[in-house]
Write a structure and sequence with these properties.
Order of helices and strands: EEEEHE
Strand order of the largest sheet: 4-3-2-1-5
Helix content: under 10%
Radius of gyration: 12 Å
Number of helices: 1
Strand content: over 45%
Distance between the termini: 9 Å
């Protein structure tokens, strides 16, 4: 599991624990997942949904994401 924190400028937009998975089958429908995509980049999604729409996440230099691994 990871703690994911997303800011727009200095405003906290999202903070929660997210499961790392190799496929969407690793989480229930509607649950967030962090994964490595086909381009070997970190992805953040909702199983059968839109993470960006659900949490009003945008793009640009004012957006920042922190990903912290929790425990072992």
């Amino acid at each position: 599991r990871f703690e994911v924190t997303i800011f727009n400028n200095d405003m906290l937009v999202y903070q929660n624990q997210v499961t790392y998975g190799k496929s969407f089958a690793d989480v229930r429908i509607g649950q967030p997942i962090i994964y490595i995509n086909s381009l070997y980049r970190v992805g953040l999604a909702i199983n059968q949904g839109s993470f960006a729409k659900a949490y009003n996440i945008g793009v640009g230099s004012n957006w920042h994401i922190e990903i912290k691994r929790l425990g072992d």
